[in-house]
């Protein structure tokens, strides 16, 4: 058995006093007499938007590189992740799905668990593409998406609800249990509301690559923030959102915020030149931009996102929920983002000031 030596733990979304003991790959006990030092145990972090990491771009990576990415994530506290494929040619998407299936057919010891695949595109607004290649954008094609779902474990899809045929596709995906997220969209508030009514349950990187919030036309951001049934996903890297906007979002959507990284190959690496699905990226002072100067994903890690949230005045327990239980609940998983007796021993130990100190994957210390 392994006793973590913590003074508190995030259990069922609340920070409770006590130490934690692991037995093999399971959590054995919580609420033991607390240790000194102020360290905190939390469930392994869950990232629902990972395009790349540690020099690996998932769209172009081979099987070994994909596995290397999964092995690198726990060194930044992430024990479960959702690989994200952006807009690309059908052939490139086919190839990436095949490789993801081969790479993660079984869990790799000491590596973050793959939760399926998130297709961010290609059914996006031509007006709100961000860095997605315009030559590969297209309107919804149910047959194409059905073929991709047969090819890979597609558990989430980002699309623009105002496109022809989009609402019917949202309904069919939602009925099949696929998480539909609205994003890269020029939708009015009314069009966004129709997407939510059809079954979309979240929004991809709120405020970025979408219609703006105006006091007479609230667009997609206003529609999402006004609905208590919609989860909003934020990229808190200091570049995607102004501090005031983060505070407004948290005040309006407390309890339904998920922090994601939208990580590229630059995440976990120094500034420099990288690629995202064939798009050249430049990373300067932590900001990831394409050759047009458009933000193109991030170099963010989830521990940094937690720290950024707390620095903005967000309650630390709320920030921790936004990277553990909240993303797990959003994709309908009750086996991740939890820390209780009997749960898998995917656990992160943080210092009193929330700096990452140790990560356990299946009870095995990897950091």
From TrEMBL:
Residues 40-366 form the Amidohydrolase-related domain. Binds 1 divalent metal cation per subunit. Substrate binds at residues 131, 208-209, 216, 240, 295-297. It is an enzyme of class 3 (hydrolase). The keyword Cell wall biogenesis/degradation does not apply. Its EC number is 3.5.1.25. GO terms for molecular function: metal ion binding; N-acetylglucosamine-6-phosphate deacetylase activity. Keywords: Carbohydrate metabolism, Hydrolase, Metal-binding. Its cofactor is a divalent metal cation. InterPro entries: Amidohydro-rel, GlcNAc_6-P_deAcase, Metal-dep_hydrolase_composite, Metal_Hydrolase. The active site is at residue 262. GO terms for biological process: N-acetylglucosamine catabolic process. Zn(2+) binds at residues 120, 184, 205. NCBIfam families: nagA (TIGR00221). PANTHER family: N-ACETYLGLUCOSAMINE-6-PHOSPHATE DEACETYLASE. Belongs to the metallo-dependent hydrolases superfamily. NagA family. This is N-acetylglucosamine-6-phosphate deacetylase. It comes from Nocardioides islandensis. The lineage of its organism: Bacteria, Bacillati, Actinomycetota, Actinomycetes, Propionibacteriales.
């Amino acid at each position: 058995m392994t006793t973590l030596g913590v003074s508190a733990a995030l259990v069922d979304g609340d920070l409770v006093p006590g130490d934690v003991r692991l037995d093999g790959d399971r959590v054995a006990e919580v609420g033991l007499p607390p240790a000194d030092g102020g360290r905190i145990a939390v469930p392994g972090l869950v990232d629902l938007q990972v395009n790349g990491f540690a020099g690996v771009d998932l769209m172009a990576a081979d099987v070994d590189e994909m596995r290397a990415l999964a092995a690198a994530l726990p060194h930044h506290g992430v024990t479960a992740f959702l690989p994200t494929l952006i807009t690309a040619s059908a052939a490139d998407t086919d190839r990436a799905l095949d490789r993801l299936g081969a790479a993660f057919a079984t869990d790799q010891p000491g590596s973050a668990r793959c939760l399926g695949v998130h297709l961010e595109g290609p059914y996006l607004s031509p007006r709100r593409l961000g860095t997605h290649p315009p030559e590969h954008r297209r309107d919804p094609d149910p047959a194409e998406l059905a073929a991709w779902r047969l090819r890979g474990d597609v558990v989430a899809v980002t699309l623009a609800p105002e496109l022809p045929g989009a609402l019917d596709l949202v309904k069919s995906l939602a009925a099949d249990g696929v998480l539909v997220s609205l994003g890269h969209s020029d939708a009015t508030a009314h069009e966004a509301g129709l997407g939510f009514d059809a079954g979309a349950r979240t929004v991809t990187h709120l405020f970025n690559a979408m219609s703006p919030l105006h006091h007479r036309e609230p667009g997609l951001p206003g529609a999402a923030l006004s609905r208590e049934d919609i989860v909003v996903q934020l990229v808190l890297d200091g570049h995607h959102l102004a501090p005031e906007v983060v505070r407004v979002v948290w005040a309006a959507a407390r309890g339904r915020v998920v922090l994601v990284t939208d990580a590229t190959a630059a995440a976990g690496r120094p500034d420099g030149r990288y690629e995202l699905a064939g798009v050249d990226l430049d990373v300067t002072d932590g900001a990831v931009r394409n050759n047009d100067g458009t933000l193109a994903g991030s170099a963010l890690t989830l521990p940094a996102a937690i720290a950024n949230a707390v620095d903005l005045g967000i309650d630390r327990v709320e920030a921790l929920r936004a990277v553990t239980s909240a993303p797990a609940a959003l994709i309908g998983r009750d086996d991740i983002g939890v820390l209780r007796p009997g749960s898998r021993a995917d656990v992160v130990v943080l210092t009193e000031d929330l700096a990452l100190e140790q990560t356990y994957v299946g009870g095995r210390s990897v950091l």
